Amino acid sequence: MISKAIPLPQLSGFTERNGNWYAEDVPLADLANEFGTPLYVYSRKAFTDAYQAYDRACIDANGKRRARVHYAMKANSNLAVIDCLKKLGAGFDLVSGGELARALAIGADPKSLVFAGVGKSATEIAQALDAGVKCINVESIAELHQINRVASKLQSRAPISLRVNPDVDAQTHPYISTGLKGNKFGIAYNEVLKTYREAAQLSQIDVVGIDCHIGSQITTTAPYLDALDKVLDLVEILKREGIVIHHLDLGGGLGIAYSDETPPDITEFTNTLLNRVADRGFGHLDIVLEPGRSLVGNAGVLLTKVEYLKPGAEKNFCIVDAAMTELMRPALYEAHHGIVPVKTKATKARTYDVVGPVCESGDWLGRDRSLAVEEGDVLAILSAGAYGFVMASNYNTRPKPAEIMVDGKNVYVIRKREYTQDLFASEIVLPK
Ligand code: LLP
Asked: What is the DSSP letter of 254?
């Protein structure tokens, strides 16, 4: 079978020069040699550029800040990554006590933290209140009452937003769509006002904001504007009722190009939303943006070595040393990631399914890819900076790979490769 050429995304931190792929100024082949494979490699420049594009758009022509970026660290929560983003001025969007601990470990200002998630436990709520986060985004009436009880026990007050489920179709993969009636996320649109009225009556609750997130890998602005208008309609009604909203959290979800998708440019996207907020007379509200993927997705690659080439009657397989354990997105969402040899070879190209060693037919990384490769070559799986390492698992007792950050010519190990022995070090065999 002849595979059709699938375009590669435009990347800022990774480039091909004379047949060799680089992370900034460092050849990827050198990194694979020195640190082994599978290996995650990030470009500091790539996520710095993406962050700065958002941040520039957050400041108006008169230098007034209109919005703030709270990086959704679920996309990539390595301490080095979040620390670099903190140094650029980012706040964070968290979804677990674990992510809260990471934010505190890098000394993030608690007031730069918003805490979301559909099933926060009482312990996690207590941790967030203890830390003094800016806001807890509430996803159900039951959770609202739980937060009130926890705050009461701690004799503290809980700043909250309600996460509105606006019933808007984000037109993305069903597993990463969150703003439809049938999704588990947020409070049903027609129950939001009632829930705010209830929240305003609760002894330990301070209503501070309103929140909405409709999904991920969204490649058009239209569903955001629909959701935004619906949320602003609610803010107007709340204002008339004397329930004051200080901040509006527009969530994350802006898509990236994995191949030839054309998501709106970050600056344009941010401007469009912020202008709509201002045009509707809400320019005084603090705006929170929670991007994840669009900051880090194209700032990382996964390097993997070709173990075996296995020609077949129906398919040729290129069996590599990375798997669904390192990058789950293809197995879970049939997601496409560009795959390139880090050094161009004169070998004849063939069409392969690129697969890992894990015992599952769903363990594939790319299908029908035209690749000129030999055994022992190194491939780079592109656009792996978001939802790559963070979704890695130890299935088949596979140690997680190392993570490297490149900054110009400098190379930093930001997570050591796991040792096999560590994977079962906390397991205990029976005494007899
Ligand atoms: N805010 C909230 C409340 C979220 O649930 C998410 C992502 C974000 C912000 C950031 O969305 P982003 O800008 O990264 O699209 N594992 C999937 C993506 C799951 C997204 C979950 N929520 C994937 O690999 O495509």
From this structure: B
Q: Answer whether 209 contacts ligand 1 (Cβ < 6 A).
A: no
Which residues constitute the domain of residue 178? 109-291
* Interval between CA 215 and ligand 1 midpoint (Å): 7
pTM exceeding 0.85: yes
Whether 329 and 373 share a structural domain: yes
Backbone angles phi, psi at 272, to 5 degrees: -60, -45
Identify whether 70 is part of a domain. no
Residue 405 lies in a domain: yes
Q: Which of 329, 337, 318 is nearest to 392 (CA)?
A: 329
CA distance 357 to 367: 15
Tokens 């527009």 belong to 250
Catalytic annotation, pick one of 58, 84, 212, 359: 359
- Asked whether residue 101 is assigned to any structural domain, the reply reads no
Q: Which pLDDT score, from 0 to 100, does residue 1 have?
A: 45
- Mutation probe of ligand 1 site: the residue of 54, 256, 290 with most atoms within 8 A of C-beta: 290
**Pair 171, 242 in one domain:** yes
Establish whether residue 277 lines the binding site of ligand 1, counting it when its CB lies within 6 angstroms of any ligand atom: no
- Catalytic annotation present for 359: yes
Helix (H) or strand (E) holding 362: none
Q: Of 233, 258, 291, which closes a domain?
A: 291
Which one of 291, 314, 340 terminates a domain?
291
Mean per-residue pLDDT pooled into runs of 10, the chain (432 residues): 71 94 98 98 97 95 94 98 98 98 98 96 98 97 97 98 91 73 87 97 98 94 95 96 96 96 94 96 96 98 98 96 98 97 93 97 96 97 98 98 98 98 97 96
Q: Let me know whether 336 and 254 are in one domain.
A: no
258 assigned to some structural domain: yes
Q: Are residues 219 and 356 in the same domain?
A: no
Cα(124)–Cα(115) distance, integer angstroms: 10
Domain of 317, CATH number, reads 2.40.37.10
Say how far apart CA 359 and CA 361 lie, in whole Å. 7
Show the tokens assigned to 306. Answer: 């070709």
Q: Tell me which residue has tokens 């006002």.
A: 193
